Amino acid sequence: MDCTSFIDSLIDTRAHWDTLIAQIDEQWMLEPGVEGKWSVKDIIAHVLWNELEMIPLIQTRSLVGSDLWQLPQDERNEAVYHLYRDAPLKDILSQEREAYNQLLQEARTLSDEELNDPHRFKDMPDSEGWIPWRIIAGCSFTHYPDHMHALKAWLAQRI
Fold it and tell me: Is the pTM above the cut of 0.70?
């Protein structure tokens, strides 16, 4: 993956995400049941957490992050849910927008070599799947569509 394609994918997929989120009335964003017990706010907070985790990874060119990464995915997702569940919607929306903007800014500092070579990141395993661009994309532009399908289906039932 080259830098231009990576940034274009991040921006384009994010535009689709933003368009979808903009269609959802804020009063609906607190209703559970979009994905399991999660509300739209919970999904946005989940995306926020993932984006926030990628910022120091890029800044330090090192596999750093929360201890929550040590948990199985379902347990990690539950912990993130509890971390943000009492936060006001406006705070989540604002923080998530800020996190995305910072992620995009940091991603623009990466070279083609850094995106593709795990040796360019301290402590990143040198094995299949541990390619820097895949790790970052998995917490951003390849992650958004994972939740967009549920959001679209839920929204279709509301309208």
Answer: yes
